[in-house]
Amino acid sequence: xxxxxxxxxxxxxxxxxxxxxxxxxxxxxxxxxxxxxxxxxxxxxxxxxxxxxxxxxxxxxxxxxxxxxxxxxxxxxxxxxxxxxxxxxxxxxxxxxxxxxxxxxxxxxxxxxxxxxxxxxxxxxxxxxxxxxxxxxxxxxxxxxxxxxxxxxxxxxxxxxxxxxxxxxxxxxxxxxxxxxxxxxxxxxxxxxxxxxxxxxxxxxxxxxxxxxxxxxxxxxxxxxxxxxxxxxxxxxxxxxxxxxxxxxxxxxxxxxxxxxxxxxxxxxxxxxxxxxxxxxxxxxxxxxxxxxxxxxxxxxxxxxxxxxxxxxxxxxxxxxxxxxxxxxxxxxxxxxxxxxxxxxxxxxxxxxxxxxxxxxxxxxxxxxxxxxxxxxxxxxxxxxxxxxxxxxxxxxxxxxxxxxxxxxxxxxxxxxxxxxxxxxxxxxxxxxxxxxxxxxxxxxxxx
Length: 448
What we know:
The protein is an alpha+beta fold.
């Protein structure tokens, strides 16, 4: 830890604060209580056309307490650390709980499920980035993109940012967990062409550690390449085609899968995958594994948002759904047990069965490569899927020309089971770690 890194001292203060709030809740008669204390700080710089547009430095704090009187629940929050404010916040949570109805599913997660092996996963890499340096990085990124080709007529801007978060979760079971992580990014968006023929695209790099970021020049040049590739797009005749989802957008398909097997959707009956544990949801060769203990993973943690120990396990094995994604509340509503997923999943890794994007395109032969999705045309209950898209028409395994103004449609249940290949070109800028995905058959609606 560097001499100017005060994260451990700040975590100590938040830990003492959490213990104090739990004691106040007990003193006011709560049978159970839990506290979350978080602090965030960061710097974000935006530039456009060689000029600084904004420099923003942020510092935020959030203190939340939830109390239970039997199975009645109340919550309140504050950012004010004065003793009288903390006392009033606890009193407010208790007052709310006393006036709510009993909920049989309410309460802390089971005490025996609390995590005991509280480790860090190499996620703390603070970058003491000064505003002037951040401006220089963003300007260099944009300049590399604008200078790449005279057809780059304009810019939508470039940015450089750094941030760090620390947090403490504690509850009346005696659990107290501490976490800290950093995140850094550089991005650039460019505009090529003129008038109605203008096209926009970009690129970004995101990492927990500064040394894992791509260089500003590389990001700018990549943004330029992507933008130029979209010039003079065409539409496609309406028909049925294989669709290859670039890794950047492919993870959205698994995002829909996760939403469909999450507890809140299931107990509300708002999922196209109700009662699906033990059934085939993906091809028989497909494995989806949750890996919460990855070193320098985008979302690694020893415990979930309720203090329950996380564990490495398969979500899907041999194409068969093994479990749902549950916190304690949704688990009780469904008559099941928490899976250690209060707050979401931790580093979901989708196994590949093919090479990279180029190899997938060659295998596809003729079809549509999707690089951008637009709109929210997904029905969570039926699985019906219809979204605007842009990308490239693939002919004989090679890019023939860019396309936009099209819609791709299908049903998520059939799309997921109809995946023919998943590439090894994993996009590591997300906790959903998946490569490009080839779906064998979808409706593509363009010109008549």
